[in-house]
Amino acid sequence: MTLKLIVKDKGDRIDLWLSNHILNISRARIQKLIKTGNVIVNNEICKTKKEQVFLGDCLQIYLPSPKKLELMPEAIPLDILYEDEYLIVINKVAGMVVHPSPGHTEGTLVHALLHHCSYLSDVGEFHRPGIVHRLDKDTTGTIVVAKTAFVHQHLQKQIRDRTIKRQYIAVVHGVLKNKENNSYKIDKGVINLPIGRHPVDRKKMAIIPIDKNGRKAVTYWKILERLGNYSLVKFNLETGRTHQIRVHSSFLGCPVLGDPLYSSNRSFNINLSGQVLHAHKLSLVHPINLNRFEVTASLPLEFTKLLKSLRQKNN
């Protein structure tokens, strides 16, 4: 595959510029592509990662075909919330990666689905059959998977058109503040801050201005319960950026409890397996009968135990 890009903004070192403009490729991989002669600048091979790019430069990036990961079905139990011949909705458990990648070659949701389903959509990349959207490894809750190509494309369009509604529940540090009214007394609000790849730590996302390649990200929140130094919060997503809730709440000083990336400096005396973030409800239009339906995933046991402990401490 070949990517072609025209520099339309301020120039920079080519490895930095490319890593800021191609979000799904790490800077380390870009540097390797440069080293192996797979990056072309104005029809000449780029010889160093420190080469400067300038306004109007034409860049070509040749991406060698990745080595295919062998997808073997695995008999992993699934909590199925809804299923028919066209799609399936799963209540994903914490610790499960959605699809295979070089660091996760077994035990993923895809491996489990291949064992459970006789067929899945082949739209998109070969190692993501049926996968329409994702949840982070330690985020639990609802995820829809397509069984046919038509259903896959229909669901993707719903995501693009923002007609799929996703509601999350989380426990965060502190109390979210309504910025418009500058008040902690108002228990709901909206976070409208663009998100992009973190400029230094490539594993993280961050608040990045639109003109610096950030993408629009809108999160609606409502406090369901105040629990001393913590809050139980409902989040509704208008957009679906990577780590959106985790980045937005952390930026406002209220990171999700147990988040290893965005609240690592926060101490807590209950052992948690990951961030306390649960995809509680998923509402979508069925691609075949065109009826809207909603699926709800109960809170996982660890989440309910945490709430019980916090409530006891604050009684």
From TrEMBL:
Residues 12-77 form the RNA-binding S4 domain. It is an enzyme of class 5 (isomerase). Signal peptide: none annotated. Keywords: Isomerase, RNA-binding. Transmembrane segments: none annotated. Its EC number is 5.4.99.-. It catalyses: a uridine in RNA = a pseudouridine in RNA. PROSITE patterns: S4. Belongs to the pseudouridine synthase RluA family. This is Pseudouridine synthase.
